[in-house]
Every structure is written in C-alpha cells, then in structure tokens.
Write a structure and sequence with these properties.
This protein is α/β, with parallel strands linked by helices. Helix content is 33%, strand content 24%. The strands form three sheets. It has a four-stranded mixed β-sheet with strand order 8-7-6-9. A three-stranded mixed β-sheet has the order 1-2-3. Strands 4-5 form a two-stranded antiparallel ribbon.
Length: 200
C-alpha cells in the first residue's frame, strides 16, 4: 500500500475516534492502536496533549531524524480541520520556565536548564556548532547528558530548527579564553540563531 493511501486511512480512523483520543479520555488500548497506526506510516514518534490554540494537540514527530521530516510534513499536511484538535509535524518550541522532568528509577527528577551557557559557532550555510556548559548534568554519563541537552534544545528551538540548524553539540566543562566573551545564557539561544540567520 502506498504511503498516501496509508496517510488517508490514518486520518479517516483518527476522525472517527477523535473524541476518545483526547488526552483526558484515551486509554492504554487506544494508545497502543494509535502507536501501531503511526508506526505503519514510518518510524515516527508522537505525543498527545493539551493544545495551544485548540483544546487538544497531536504531534507526529521525526524523533530526531531529519530524514523523516518530509514524511511527518506529508502526514500533517493531509490532516483534517477539526474543531478540537491542532496538529504538528515536529515538536514545537515551548513557552516554558526552562525546566523539564525525567523519570529516574521510578522517581521524577527536575532538570533546570535556566543557567546553562552556550557559544554558537556559525558555518557559511547558516548552520551551527553549539558549545554548551551545563554543570548540573555532571552526575550523568555522556550519552545521557547529550540526550538531556537534545530535550532542552527541542524545547527552546522546536524540533525542526534544532534538526536543521544545529550540526554538532559539544558539552564542555569551561569555555576557552577565545570563547569567553561570546558566551550567552541559554535563554537567548533562539533569538540569537534567528538574528544570525536573518530569520526575524
């Protein structure tokens, strides 16, 4: 079955089940059905939650794989107009307090990114390397640190900008002398990138 047909069938099913898919009504069985239907379109991630403009939101995300972004865009561009739902083809930037929670051994733990600092190194194609100092992640192994930084960057920039513009991330203990006068607080990152790329 071609992808366009699968996408059409997915949205037809979604429309029929839109009421029971709402975040306050969805059950474990429906979560599994929805997961299988989205995975049948491709190796995609998804989230359901409260919307920003409408009551509910469904995000169909490339899950950190920029090569899957055209597929999520194709899926969401075919989405129906529903009174209670908004749809996104990537995780949007958040209006947040620069804090998020992770679960460690069954315990929720807050990660506060508000005092993280960064330096942007710009390439001619308007992409960037990011040097980032996040002292409160030192208790985690390197892979976990980078996963947590990815979560923060998606929350700050939105998944699409993060995937398209940040080529490499380097977590550092301290900035070198040549970069000291370039460092900024992480809260300035999005505007900084938009200004440098003439996107605002």
């Amino acid at each position: 079955m071609e992808v366009k047909t699968k996408i059409k069938q997915f949205w037809s099913w979604f429309v029929q089940n839109q009421e029971v898919l709402k975040p306050d009504r969805i059950n474990n069985k429906l979560i599994e059905v929805l997961n299988q239907k989205i995975l049948s379109l491709g190796d995609l991630n998804w989230e359901i939650g409260a919307g920003t403009k409408k009551e509910n939101m469904l995000i169909i995300s490339p899950g950190g794989d920029i090569d899957l972004l055209p597929l999520t865009k194709a899926v969401v561009s075919s989405s129906p107009m529903l009174a209670d739902w908004e749809f996104y083809d990537h995780k949007p930037a958040k209006d947040w307090e620069y804090q998020f929670y992770i679960e460690e051994k069954g315990v929720k733990k807050m990660i506060d990114v508000s005092d993280w600092e960064y330096v942007l190194l710009k390439f001619p194609d308007n992409t960037y390397d990011l040097l980032i100092k996040c002292n409160n992640l030192r208790a985690y192994v390197k892979d976990q640190q980078y996963d947590l930084v990815d979560i923060a960057l998606e929350s700050i920039l939105g998944e699409e900008l993060s995937l398209k513009l940040i080529k490499n991330v380097d977590i550092i203990k301290d900035f070198s002398r040549e970069h000291l006068d370039q460092k900024s607080n992480i809260k300035h990152l999005k505007n900084h990138i938009l200004e440098l790329g003439n996107l605002i």
